[in-house]
Amino acid sequence: MQALQHFIGEQRFGEAVRAFKTERDYAGLAAYLTDALASDDMPSATQAKAHNELGLALLQLEQPAEAERAFRSAIERDPKSVNPRFNLANLALYARNYVRGLDLFREILEIDPAHAGALHHAGLCCAMQDKFEEALPYFERSAEAAPGVMGPDFWAGECLVRLGRFEQGVPHFRRALEIMPDHTESIRGLAICLYETKEYAEALTACDTLIAGGGGAEYLALRVKGDVLLALGQGEKAALCHLGMAELDFDAREYLHLRSRNLAELGSDQAEIYAKTIADHLRGMDAEFLELLPEQQ
After folding, report:
1. Residue 235, burial from CB neighbour count under 10 angstroms (0-12, 13-18, 19+)
2. For position 66, what pLDDT does the model report?
3. CA 113, CA 297: separation in Å to the nearest integer?
4. What is the pLDDT of residue 14?
5. Which residues lie below 8 Å from residue 194, measured CB to CB, with a gap of 6+?
6. Which residue in 180, 192, 185 sits closest to 150, CA to CA?
7. 181 three-state secondary structure
8. According to the model, what pLDDT value does residue 13 have?
9. Residue whose C-alpha is closest to residue 25's, from 69, 64, 60, 63
10. The predicted structure's pLDDT at residue 115
11. DSSP string computed for 73-88
12. How far apart are CA 136 and CA 52, in angstroms?
């Protein structure tokens, strides 16, 4: 493609870019943008947009190093432009370079303190380093900036669970579920918080929802539900619930033994029935397992 000798105008340029993107022709878009940037009269602000679009096209073509150079070129031409900075910061986040990513998102927040995406992703950079206290304000501010988005409230709740502040986590998970009622991770977080705050009836409902929904959430739901039943003085039902974990994962037997021992050490009035139910059923499960093995010659 020959280099454009003169810039065709921002409106026609934008229309051409949108046409390539509609067709998902990212190779064609990258070639067009490279050609357009060779024009000798493209305004600086438009150059910044073109470099940013080029970076996005190169990402679609799985060329992250070239995309990074394009985003940096966009920033050089328009230092106050937020979009290329956000894309550059996301490159660091997706590469798991959380320290660098956090620095870049903070630079965006110096320009636009209410940028919901930068706030959320800054929180992710902190959370991925287990810095939950530092992450929490970013998620809370992001939730305020984008009240219709589920992610910030979910992650704020997750931080509060990790920090042991379960009562504060409840409203965040509730808001996340108002936006996305079937979000399994939010139901899980809510179940944990409800158990820890002794809201047992609702905790059981949340656990039953997870168990019915399947998808890998059953294991934790069975554990929390069993603990709720223990708190309600229903040791046999609790044991049967926890035994469901052993049916999903053989290694859960270690948890069952530890839970039995813990109840005994605490002097729980449910310790004996819990331990007996566990022992009786494990023997049955082991016998059933042995029957499936081929006979020894």
Report:
1. buried
2. 96
3. 74
4. 86
5. 170, 200, 202, 203, 206
6. 180
7. coil
8. 83
9. 60
10. 97
11. HHHHH-TT-HHHHHHH
12. 30
Residue count (the chain): 297
C-alpha angle 109-114-119 in degrees, rounded to nearest 5: 60
**How much is the pLDDT for 8?**
60
Amino acid (1-letter code) at residue 165: R
Please identify every stretch of the chain with a pLDDT value under 50, giving residue numbers as ranges: 1-5, 289-294, 296-297
Q: Helices 44-60 & 82-94, crossing angle to 10 degrees?
A: 20
Residue 212 CA to residue 188 CA, distance in Å, equals 13
Distance CA 164, CA 148 (A): 26
Amino acid at 70: A
Place of tokens 């959380």: 98
- Cβ-contact 89, 108 below 8 angstroms: yes
Enter the pTM of the model.
Answer: 0.86
**Beta strands, E only, the chain:** none
pLDDT tens profile 65-92: 999 999 999 999 999 999 999 999 999 9
What is the distance between the alpha carbons of residues 290 and 285, in angstroms, rounded to a whole number? 9
Structure tokens at 67: 């995309």
What is the residue whose two structure tokens read 């997750």?
A: 158
Cα gap 112→86, rounded to integer Å: 11
5 secondary structure, DSSP code: S
